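Data availability (excerpt). The following record was deposited with the supplementary files.
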Amino acid sequence: MGVMQMTENTAKERIETLFKAAHRSGRRMWSQERYKILCMYDLQMDTEKMRKQLIPEWKQMPLEQKLSYIHRAIMNKTYRIKRRSSYPCIRYLRLPRTVS
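Predicted structure:
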C-alpha cells in the first residue's frame, strides 16, 4: 500500500482543476477569492501570522482529505472570507467535525 505523498504543487494543480470545474458549472470566482481559498487551505501560506491561524486538526489532515474539503467548500460556498483582514482565517471555514 505505497500511497505516494502528494506534493504541494500537485495539490495546487488539483485545486486549479477544481476551480475550473466549479467555473464550468457556473460558480465563478475572482482571483482574489481563489487566492484566499488557497491560503485558507495552507497551500500558499505567506506569513507566520497566517500559519498560526490554522487549526491543529486541519494541519494534520492528509492532503487528499483537504482537497475533498476544498472541493466541497468551493461548490457549496461554505468557506468564509473575513473581509477586513488582509489574510484569510481558517476559522471561517466550516470544517466538518471528523468522525474517527
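Summary of structural features: The CA atoms of residues 54 and 90 lie 6 Å apart.
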